[in-house]
Protein backbone atom coordinates (compact mmCIF):
# COMPACT_ATOMS: atom_id res chain seq x y z
CA UNK A 1 0.00 0.00 0.00
CA UNK A 2 2.06 2.93 -1.28
CA UNK A 3 1.71 6.17 0.61
CA UNK A 4 1.42 9.40 -1.36
CA UNK A 5 2.91 11.48 1.45
CA UNK A 6 5.00 14.21 -0.15
CA UNK A 7 7.87 13.99 2.33
CA UNK A 8 9.86 10.95 3.19
CA UNK A 9 9.21 10.73 6.93
CA UNK A 10 11.79 9.15 9.17
CA UNK A 11 9.03 7.52 11.18
CA UNK A 12 6.14 6.86 8.82
CA UNK A 13 2.74 5.98 10.22
CA UNK A 14 1.93 2.29 10.10
CA UNK A 15 -0.08 1.27 7.03
CA UNK A 16 -3.62 -0.08 7.13
CA UNK A 17 -2.45 -3.68 6.77
CA UNK A 18 0.01 -3.27 9.65
CA UNK A 19 -2.68 -1.77 11.89
CA UNK A 20 -5.00 -4.67 11.08
CA UNK A 21 -2.40 -7.35 11.61
CA UNK A 22 -1.79 -6.17 15.17
CA UNK A 23 -5.52 -6.33 16.02
CA UNK A 24 -6.76 -9.89 15.61
CA UNK A 25 -10.44 -9.11 16.25
CA UNK A 26 -10.47 -6.94 13.09
CA UNK A 27 -10.32 -8.13 9.51
CA UNK A 28 -10.88 -6.75 6.02
CA UNK A 29 -13.16 -8.60 3.62
CA UNK A 30 -13.38 -8.06 -0.11
CA UNK A 31 -17.15 -7.93 0.02
CA UNK A 32 -18.13 -6.86 3.57
CA UNK A 33 -15.29 -4.48 4.32
CA UNK A 34 -13.87 -3.90 7.80
CA UNK A 35 -15.29 -6.48 10.19
CA UNK A 36 -15.22 -6.87 13.99
CA UNK A 37 -15.12 -10.57 14.84
CA UNK A 38 -17.80 -11.74 12.37
CA UNK A 39 -19.86 -8.56 12.09
CA UNK A 40 -19.20 -6.06 9.28
CA UNK A 41 -19.05 -2.49 10.57
CA UNK A 42 -21.26 -1.41 7.66
CA UNK A 43 -24.05 -3.50 9.17
CA UNK A 44 -23.60 -1.87 12.56
CA UNK A 45 -23.68 1.59 10.97
CA UNK A 46 -26.87 0.70 9.07
CA UNK A 47 -28.47 -0.55 12.27
CA UNK A 48 -27.23 1.87 14.92
CA UNK A 49 -26.10 4.90 12.90
CA UNK A 50 -22.89 6.83 13.58
CA UNK A 51 -20.96 7.85 15.56
CA UNK A 52 -21.06 4.56 17.44
CA UNK A 53 -18.65 2.84 19.82
CA UNK A 54 -18.12 -0.83 18.98
CA UNK A 55 -16.65 -3.30 21.49
CA UNK A 56 -15.43 -6.82 20.78
CA UNK A 57 -16.42 -9.19 23.57
CA UNK A 58 -13.95 -11.75 22.22
CA UNK A 59 -11.05 -9.31 22.44
CA UNK A 60 -12.04 -8.31 25.99
CA UNK A 61 -12.05 -11.98 27.04
CA UNK A 62 -8.74 -12.72 25.31
CA UNK A 63 -7.04 -9.82 27.05
CA UNK A 64 -8.45 -10.65 30.48
CA UNK A 65 -7.19 -14.21 30.05
CA UNK A 66 -3.79 -13.15 28.72
CA UNK A 67 -3.22 -10.90 31.71
CA UNK A 68 -4.20 -13.60 34.19
CA UNK A 69 -2.04 -16.15 32.36
CA UNK A 70 0.96 -13.80 32.59
CA UNK A 71 0.47 -13.38 36.35
CA UNK A 72 -0.01 -17.11 36.85
CA UNK A 73 3.01 -17.79 34.66
CA UNK A 74 5.18 -15.67 36.95
CA UNK A 75 3.97 -17.69 39.93
CA UNK A 76 2.15 -14.74 41.50
CA UNK A 77 -0.95 -15.01 43.64
CA UNK A 78 -2.80 -12.17 41.98
CA UNK A 79 -6.28 -10.73 41.63
CA UNK A 80 -7.22 -8.40 38.79
CA UNK A 81 -9.52 -5.45 39.51
CA UNK A 82 -10.52 -3.83 36.23
CA UNK A 83 -10.43 -0.01 36.47
CA UNK A 84 -14.04 0.81 35.64
CA UNK A 85 -13.30 4.42 34.72
CA UNK A 86 -11.71 3.27 31.43
CA UNK A 87 -15.04 1.95 30.14
CA UNK A 88 -18.19 1.88 32.24
CA UNK A 89 -20.43 -0.01 29.82
CA UNK A 90 -22.53 -2.55 31.70
CA UNK A 91 -22.00 -5.06 28.86
CA UNK A 92 -18.22 -4.62 29.04
CA UNK A 93 -18.29 -5.00 32.82
CA UNK A 94 -20.44 -8.10 32.48
CA UNK A 95 -17.99 -9.76 30.07
CA UNK A 96 -15.10 -8.99 32.41
CA UNK A 97 -17.05 -10.13 35.49
CA UNK A 98 -17.68 -13.46 33.75
CA UNK A 99 -13.90 -13.73 33.30
CA UNK A 100 -13.55 -13.44 37.06
CA UNK A 101 -12.25 -9.88 37.15
CA UNK A 102 -13.05 -7.66 40.10
CA UNK A 103 -13.37 -3.88 39.86
CA UNK A 104 -11.44 -0.78 40.84
CA UNK A 105 -13.90 2.10 41.19
CA UNK A 106 -13.45 5.81 41.83
CA UNK A 107 -17.01 7.04 42.39
CA UNK A 108 -20.45 6.06 43.61
CA UNK A 109 -21.56 5.71 39.99
CA UNK A 110 -18.76 3.28 39.19
CA UNK A 111 -19.41 1.29 42.36
CA UNK A 112 -23.06 1.00 41.40
CA UNK A 113 -22.12 0.01 37.82
CA UNK A 114 -19.78 -2.72 39.06
CA UNK A 115 -22.45 -4.11 41.38
CA UNK A 116 -25.09 -3.89 38.61
CA UNK A 117 -22.80 -5.96 36.38
CA UNK A 118 -22.72 -8.65 39.05
CA UNK A 119 -19.26 -7.99 40.48
CA UNK A 120 -19.49 -8.87 44.19
CA UNK A 121 -18.53 -6.26 46.76
CA UNK A 122 -15.83 -8.65 47.95
CA UNK A 123 -14.02 -8.07 44.63
CA UNK A 124 -14.28 -4.28 44.55
CA UNK A 125 -11.59 -1.75 45.46
CA UNK A 126 -12.44 1.94 45.89
CA UNK A 127 -9.69 4.38 44.86
CA UNK A 128 -9.66 8.15 44.52
CA UNK A 129 -8.34 11.25 46.18
CA UNK A 130 -11.68 12.78 47.16
CA UNK A 131 -14.24 10.18 48.17
CA UNK A 132 -17.24 11.84 49.73
CA UNK A 133 -18.82 10.69 52.98
CA UNK A 134 -21.79 9.46 50.96
CA UNK A 135 -19.47 7.34 48.80
CA UNK A 136 -17.65 5.94 51.82
CA UNK A 137 -20.98 5.05 53.40
CA UNK A 138 -22.02 3.15 50.25
CA UNK A 139 -18.67 1.34 50.20
CA UNK A 140 -19.27 0.25 53.80
CA UNK A 141 -22.85 -0.81 53.01
CA UNK A 142 -21.59 -2.92 50.11
CA UNK A 143 -18.86 -4.35 52.36
CA UNK A 144 -16.32 -3.96 49.55
CA UNK A 145 -12.93 -5.65 49.61
CA UNK A 146 -10.84 -2.56 50.21
CA UNK A 147 -10.91 1.21 50.38
CA UNK A 148 -7.65 2.79 49.28
CA UNK A 149 -6.99 5.74 51.54
CA UNK A 150 -5.12 8.68 50.05
CA UNK A 151 -4.66 10.96 53.06
CA UNK A 152 -4.60 11.16 56.84
CA UNK A 153 -7.71 13.33 56.67
CA UNK A 154 -9.63 10.71 54.73
CA UNK A 155 -8.56 8.05 57.25
CA UNK A 156 -10.02 10.08 60.13
CA UNK A 157 -13.30 10.62 58.24
CA UNK A 158 -13.68 6.95 57.36
CA UNK A 159 -12.76 5.83 60.86
CA UNK A 160 -15.43 8.05 62.43
CA UNK A 161 -18.02 6.94 59.88
CA UNK A 162 -17.27 3.22 60.15
CA UNK A 163 -17.18 3.34 63.94
CA UNK A 164 -20.51 5.18 64.06
CA UNK A 165 -22.04 2.46 61.86
CA UNK A 166 -20.47 -0.31 63.92
CA UNK A 167 -18.45 -1.54 60.97
CA UNK A 168 -14.84 -2.20 60.13
CA UNK A 169 -13.45 -0.94 56.83
CA UNK A 170 -10.61 -2.87 55.22
CA UNK A 171 -8.24 -0.17 54.05
CA UNK A 172 -5.03 0.07 52.09
CA UNK A 173 -2.75 3.06 52.20
CA UNK A 174 -2.01 4.52 48.79
CA UNK A 175 1.53 5.76 48.70
CA UNK A 176 3.10 8.08 46.22
CA UNK A 177 6.51 6.54 45.43
CA UNK A 178 7.79 9.71 43.69
CA UNK A 179 8.80 7.99 40.47
CA UNK A 180 8.41 9.41 36.99
CA UNK A 181 6.42 7.04 34.77
CA UNK A 182 7.47 9.19 31.77
CA UNK A 183 3.99 9.31 30.36
CA UNK A 184 1.86 12.33 29.38
CA UNK A 185 1.89 15.01 32.11
CA UNK A 186 -1.89 14.83 32.43
CA UNK A 187 -1.84 11.12 33.30
CA UNK A 188 1.21 10.78 35.50
CA UNK A 189 0.24 10.21 39.13
CA UNK A 190 3.27 8.91 40.99
CA UNK A 191 5.35 12.08 41.32
CA UNK A 192 5.60 13.84 44.66
CA UNK A 193 3.98 16.95 43.17
CA UNK A 194 0.91 14.98 42.08
CA UNK A 195 -2.20 15.02 44.28
CA UNK A 196 -2.34 11.25 44.73
CA UNK A 197 -1.50 9.15 47.76
CA UNK A 198 0.70 9.94 50.75
CA UNK A 199 4.45 10.47 50.69
CA UNK A 200 6.25 7.20 51.24
CA UNK A 201 8.23 8.78 54.09
CA UNK A 202 4.96 9.49 55.94
CA UNK A 203 3.53 6.04 55.29
CA UNK A 204 4.85 4.05 58.30
CA UNK A 205 3.46 6.50 60.86
CA UNK A 206 0.16 6.78 59.04
CA UNK A 207 -0.16 3.01 58.68
CA UNK A 208 0.38 2.68 62.43
CA UNK A 209 -2.30 5.32 62.95
CA UNK A 210 -4.72 3.31 60.74
CA UNK A 211 -4.11 0.26 62.92
CA UNK A 212 -4.91 2.31 66.03
CA UNK A 213 -8.06 4.02 64.71
CA UNK A 214 -11.43 2.45 65.45
CA UNK A 215 -13.40 1.11 62.50
CA UNK A 216 -10.36 0.56 60.30
CA UNK A 217 -8.40 -2.57 59.49
CA UNK A 218 -5.27 -1.80 57.47
CA UNK A 219 -4.77 -4.69 55.04
CA UNK A 220 -2.10 -3.44 52.70
CA UNK A 221 -0.39 -0.77 50.70
CA UNK A 222 -1.25 0.47 47.22
CA UNK A 223 0.24 2.57 44.48
CA UNK A 224 -0.66 3.68 40.96
CA UNK A 225 2.03 5.62 39.16
CA UNK A 226 0.28 6.74 35.99
CA UNK A 227 -1.43 5.66 32.81
CA UNK A 228 -0.31 4.63 29.32
CA UNK A 229 3.11 3.57 30.59
CA UNK A 230 5.10 2.43 27.58
CA UNK A 231 8.59 3.43 28.68
CA UNK A 232 9.48 -0.06 29.87
CA UNK A 233 9.52 -1.48 33.36
CA UNK A 234 11.97 0.92 35.02
CA UNK A 235 9.31 3.12 36.65
CA UNK A 236 7.26 0.14 37.80
CA UNK A 237 10.33 -1.56 39.24
CA UNK A 238 11.39 1.60 41.06
CA UNK A 239 7.91 2.09 42.52
CA UNK A 240 7.49 -1.52 43.57
CA UNK A 241 10.98 -1.67 45.07
CA UNK A 242 10.02 1.28 47.29
CA UNK A 243 6.77 -0.45 48.19
CA UNK A 244 8.71 -3.58 49.14
CA UNK A 245 10.98 -1.56 51.45
CA UNK A 246 7.92 0.03 52.99
CA UNK A 247 6.30 -3.35 53.62
CA UNK A 248 9.48 -4.58 55.31
CA UNK A 249 9.51 -1.52 57.54
CA UNK A 250 5.85 -2.05 58.44
CA UNK A 251 6.47 -5.70 59.26
CA UNK A 252 9.47 -4.78 61.35
CA UNK A 253 7.19 -2.46 63.31
CA UNK A 254 4.79 -5.32 63.89
CA UNK A 255 2.15 -3.96 61.53
CA UNK A 256 0.30 -6.58 59.48
CA UNK A 257 0.30 -6.37 55.68
CA UNK A 258 -1.92 -8.86 53.84
CA UNK A 259 -1.44 -7.83 50.24
CA UNK A 260 -0.08 -5.23 47.87
CA UNK A 261 -2.11 -3.29 45.32
CA UNK A 262 0.12 -2.62 42.30
CA UNK A 263 -2.27 -0.24 40.50
CA UNK A 264 -2.77 -0.04 36.74
CA UNK A 265 -1.17 1.95 33.98
CA UNK A 266 0.11 -0.70 31.59
CA UNK A 267 0.31 1.01 28.19
CA UNK A 268 -0.86 -0.17 24.78
CA UNK A 269 0.62 0.49 21.33
CA UNK A 270 -1.75 3.00 19.73
CA UNK A 271 0.57 3.50 16.76
CA UNK A 272 3.39 1.00 16.56
CA UNK A 273 5.37 2.10 19.59
CA UNK A 274 6.92 -0.65 21.66
CA UNK A 275 4.72 -1.34 24.69
CA UNK A 276 5.48 -3.58 27.63
CA UNK A 277 3.77 -6.96 27.76
CA UNK A 278 1.79 -8.28 30.73
CA UNK A 279 4.58 -10.84 31.08
CA UNK A 280 7.07 -7.98 31.56
CA UNK A 281 4.84 -6.41 34.21
CA UNK A 282 4.37 -9.75 35.96
CA UNK A 283 8.14 -10.23 35.90
CA UNK A 284 8.74 -6.78 37.40
CA UNK A 285 6.26 -7.50 40.19
CA UNK A 286 7.79 -10.90 40.85
CA UNK A 287 11.32 -9.49 40.98
CA UNK A 288 10.50 -6.64 43.35
CA UNK A 289 7.56 -7.80 45.47
CA UNK A 290 7.87 -11.57 45.05
CA UNK A 291 10.26 -12.04 48.00
CA UNK A 292 7.57 -10.68 50.36
CA UNK A 293 5.41 -13.70 49.54
CA UNK A 294 2.18 -11.68 49.58
CA UNK A 295 -0.76 -11.78 47.16
CA UNK A 296 -0.88 -8.83 44.78
CA UNK A 297 -3.74 -6.90 43.21
CA UNK A 298 -3.68 -5.23 39.78
CA UNK A 299 -5.94 -2.44 38.51
CA UNK A 300 -5.61 -2.38 34.72
CA UNK A 301 -8.06 -0.26 32.74
CA UNK A 302 -6.67 0.76 29.38
CA UNK A 303 -4.77 -2.47 28.74
CA UNK A 304 -7.99 -4.49 29.07
CA UNK A 305 -10.54 -2.19 27.44
CA UNK A 306 -8.59 -0.06 24.93
CA UNK A 307 -7.78 -2.34 22.00
CA UNK A 308 -11.18 -4.13 21.98
CA UNK A 309 -13.06 -0.90 21.20
CA UNK A 310 -13.35 1.36 18.19
CA UNK A 311 -15.28 4.48 17.28
CA UNK A 312 -17.21 4.17 14.03
CA UNK A 313 -17.86 7.49 12.29
CA UNK A 314 -19.12 8.78 8.94
CA UNK A 315 -17.61 11.38 6.65
CA UNK A 316 -19.84 14.47 6.51
CA UNK A 317 -17.82 16.09 3.77
CA UNK A 318 -14.35 16.40 2.36
CA UNK A 319 -13.19 20.00 2.24
CA UNK A 320 -10.29 21.24 0.15
CA UNK A 321 -8.06 23.95 1.61
CA UNK A 322 -8.65 27.46 0.20
CA UNK A 323 -6.27 29.86 -1.50
CA UNK A 324 -4.12 30.26 1.62
CA UNK A 325 -3.61 26.52 2.12
CA UNK A 326 -3.89 24.86 -1.29
CA UNK A 327 -3.47 21.13 -1.20
CA UNK A 328 -4.76 20.90 2.32
CA UNK A 329 -7.59 18.45 2.70
CA UNK A 330 -9.98 18.23 5.62
CA UNK A 331 -12.07 15.14 6.27
CA UNK A 332 -14.97 16.39 8.39
CA UNK A 333 -16.61 13.58 10.36
CA UNK A 334 -19.83 13.21 12.34
CA UNK A 335 -17.71 12.26 15.36
CA UNK A 336 -15.98 15.00 17.32
CA UNK A 337 -13.85 15.79 20.34
CA UNK A 338 -16.92 15.50 22.53
CA UNK A 339 -17.01 11.81 21.58
CA UNK A 340 -13.30 10.96 21.53
CA UNK A 341 -11.38 13.63 23.43
CA UNK A 342 -8.00 11.88 23.64
CA UNK A 343 -6.43 13.55 20.58
CA UNK A 344 -7.45 17.03 21.80
CA UNK A 345 -6.60 16.35 25.45
CA UNK A 346 -3.43 14.26 25.24
CA UNK A 347 -2.25 14.77 21.64
CA UNK A 348 -3.09 11.08 21.28
CA UNK A 349 -2.61 9.18 18.02
CA UNK A 350 -5.37 6.78 17.01
CA UNK A 351 -5.26 4.54 13.96
CA UNK A 352 -7.96 5.47 11.43
CA UNK A 353 -9.12 2.81 8.98
CA UNK A 354 -11.56 3.17 6.11
CA UNK A 355 -14.35 0.62 6.27
CA UNK A 356 -15.40 0.07 2.63
CA UNK A 357 -13.29 -2.43 0.65
CA UNK A 358 -12.62 0.03 -2.19
CA UNK A 359 -11.54 2.77 0.25
CA UNK A 360 -9.08 0.36 1.80
CA UNK A 361 -7.09 0.02 -1.42
CA UNK A 362 -7.59 3.49 -2.93
CA UNK A 363 -4.63 5.88 -3.39
CA UNK A 364 -3.62 7.78 -0.26
CA UNK A 365 -2.88 11.41 0.36
CA UNK A 366 -2.54 13.47 3.55
CA UNK A 367 -5.71 14.66 5.23
CA UNK A 368 -6.55 16.51 8.41
CA UNK A 369 -9.28 14.52 10.12
CA UNK A 370 -11.57 16.81 12.10
CA UNK A 371 -14.94 16.94 13.82
CA UNK A 372 -17.63 19.61 13.49
CA UNK A 373 -17.18 21.13 16.96
CA UNK A 374 -16.35 24.83 17.10
CA UNK A 375 -12.82 24.41 18.46
CA UNK A 376 -9.56 24.15 16.57
CA UNK A 377 -8.67 21.41 19.03
CA UNK A 378 -11.39 19.30 17.47
CA UNK A 379 -8.78 17.64 15.28
CA UNK A 380 -8.26 13.88 15.36
CA UNK A 381 -5.23 13.72 13.08
CA UNK A 382 -3.12 15.95 10.89
CA UNK A 383 -1.58 14.93 7.58
CA UNK A 384 -2.85 11.37 7.90
CA UNK A 385 -2.48 9.21 4.77
CA UNK A 386 -6.06 8.40 3.82
CA UNK A 387 -7.98 7.87 0.59
CA UNK A 388 -10.40 10.39 -0.84
CA UNK A 389 -13.63 9.69 1.04
CA UNK A 390 -17.11 10.67 -0.07
CA UNK A 391 -19.87 11.88 2.26
CA UNK A 392 -21.29 8.88 4.11
CA UNK A 393 -18.09 6.84 3.88
CA UNK A 394 -17.31 5.07 7.15
CA UNK A 395 -14.07 5.22 9.12
CA UNK A 396 -13.02 3.48 12.33
CA UNK A 397 -10.85 4.97 15.09
CA UNK A 398 -8.91 2.10 16.57
CA UNK A 399 -8.12 1.35 20.23
CA UNK A 400 -10.89 3.63 21.45
CA UNK A 401 -12.37 1.27 24.02
CA UNK A 402 -10.67 2.91 26.99
CA UNK A 403 -11.15 6.57 27.93
CA UNK A 404 -13.35 6.93 24.83
CA UNK A 405 -17.06 6.79 25.60
CA UNK A 406 -16.21 7.13 29.29
CA UNK A 407 -14.78 10.63 28.72
CA UNK A 408 -17.32 11.83 26.18
CA UNK A 409 -19.55 14.83 26.75
CA UNK A 410 -22.46 16.59 25.09
CA UNK A 411 -20.44 19.70 24.18
CA UNK A 412 -22.06 21.58 21.29
CA UNK A 413 -25.35 19.94 22.38
CA UNK A 414 -24.31 16.72 20.70
CA UNK A 415 -26.09 13.61 22.03
CA UNK A 416 -23.87 10.85 23.47
CA UNK A 417 -23.07 8.26 20.80
CA UNK A 418 -24.54 4.76 20.74
CA UNK A 419 -22.57 1.76 21.99
CA UNK A 420 -22.62 -1.70 20.45
CA UNK A 421 -21.11 -5.00 21.55
CA UNK A 422 -20.05 -7.67 19.06
CA UNK A 423 -19.70 -11.26 20.21
CA UNK A 424 -18.84 -13.66 17.38
CA UNK A 425 -21.57 -13.30 14.77
CA UNK A 426 -23.93 -11.49 17.17
CA UNK A 427 -24.16 -7.82 17.97
CA UNK A 428 -26.45 -5.67 20.09
CA UNK A 429 -26.86 -2.03 20.99
CA UNK A 430 -25.66 -1.90 24.59
CA UNK A 431 -26.26 1.84 25.06
CA UNK A 432 -28.73 3.50 22.73
CA UNK A 433 -27.77 6.82 21.25
CA UNK A 434 -28.90 9.69 23.44
CA UNK A 435 -31.80 11.55 21.83
CA UNK A 436 -32.23 15.28 21.45
CA UNK A 437 -35.27 14.97 23.69
CA UNK A 438 -33.02 13.37 26.36
CA UNK A 439 -30.70 16.33 26.07
CA UNK A 440 -33.34 19.07 26.04
CA UNK A 441 -35.41 17.26 28.65
CA UNK A 442 -32.80 17.88 31.35
CA UNK A 443 -33.47 21.62 31.35
CA UNK A 444 -36.05 23.37 33.51
CA UNK A 445 -37.15 26.97 33.24
CA UNK A 446 -37.70 28.82 36.51
CA UNK A 447 -41.23 30.19 36.90
CA UNK A 448 -40.15 33.77 36.46
CA UNK A 449 -38.70 33.03 33.05
CA UNK A 450 -41.55 30.82 31.90
CA UNK A 451 -44.02 33.63 32.47
CA UNK A 452 -41.98 36.19 30.60
CA UNK A 453 -42.63 35.01 27.07
CA UNK A 454 -40.03 36.22 24.60
C1 LIG B 1 -7.03 5.16 36.37
C2 LIG B 1 -6.59 4.23 37.41
C3 LIG B 1 -6.25 2.92 37.07
C4 LIG B 1 -6.26 2.41 35.67
O1 LIG B 1 -5.30 3.01 34.87
P1 LIG B 1 -4.99 2.43 33.40
O2 LIG B 1 -3.92 3.29 32.89
O3 LIG B 1 -6.25 2.55 32.63
O4 LIG B 1 -4.58 1.01 33.57
C5 LIG B 1 -5.88 2.06 38.09
N1 LIG B 1 -5.84 2.47 39.38
C6 LIG B 1 -6.15 3.74 39.73
C7 LIG B 1 -6.08 4.12 41.16
C8 LIG B 1 -6.53 4.65 38.76
O5 LIG B 1 -6.82 5.90 39.11
UniProtKB/TrEMBL annotation:
It holds the Pfam family Orn_Arg_deC_N. It is an enzyme of class 4 (lyase). Pathway: Amino-acid biosynthesis; L-lysine biosynthesis via DAP pathway; L-lysine from DL-2,6-diaminopimelate: step 1/1. The active site is at residue 374. GO terms for molecular function: diaminopimelate decarboxylase activity; pyridoxal phosphate binding. InterPro entries: Ala_racemase/Decarboxylase_C (IPR009006), DAP_deCOOHase_LysA (IPR002986), De-COase2_C (IPR022643), De-COase2_CS (IPR022657), De-COase2_N (IPR022644), De-COase2_pyr-phos_BS (IPR022653), Orn/DAP/Arg_de-COase (IPR000183), PLP-binding_barrel (IPR029066). Homodimer. This is Diaminopimelate decarboxylase. The lineage of its organism: Bacteria, Pseudomonadati, Pseudomonadota, Alphaproteobacteria, Acetobacterales.
Amino acid sequence: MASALPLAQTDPDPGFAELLAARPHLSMHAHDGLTVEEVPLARIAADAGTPTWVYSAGALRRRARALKAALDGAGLRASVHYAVKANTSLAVLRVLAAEGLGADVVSEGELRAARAAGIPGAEIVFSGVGKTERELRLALDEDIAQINLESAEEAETLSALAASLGRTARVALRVNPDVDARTHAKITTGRSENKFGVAIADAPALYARLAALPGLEPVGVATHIGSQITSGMAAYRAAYARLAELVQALRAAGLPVQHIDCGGGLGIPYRDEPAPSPEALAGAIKATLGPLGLPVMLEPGRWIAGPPGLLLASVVLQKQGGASSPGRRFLVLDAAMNDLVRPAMYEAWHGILPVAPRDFVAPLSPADVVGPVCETGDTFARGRALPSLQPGALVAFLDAGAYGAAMSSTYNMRPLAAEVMVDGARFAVTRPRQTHDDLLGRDRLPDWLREASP
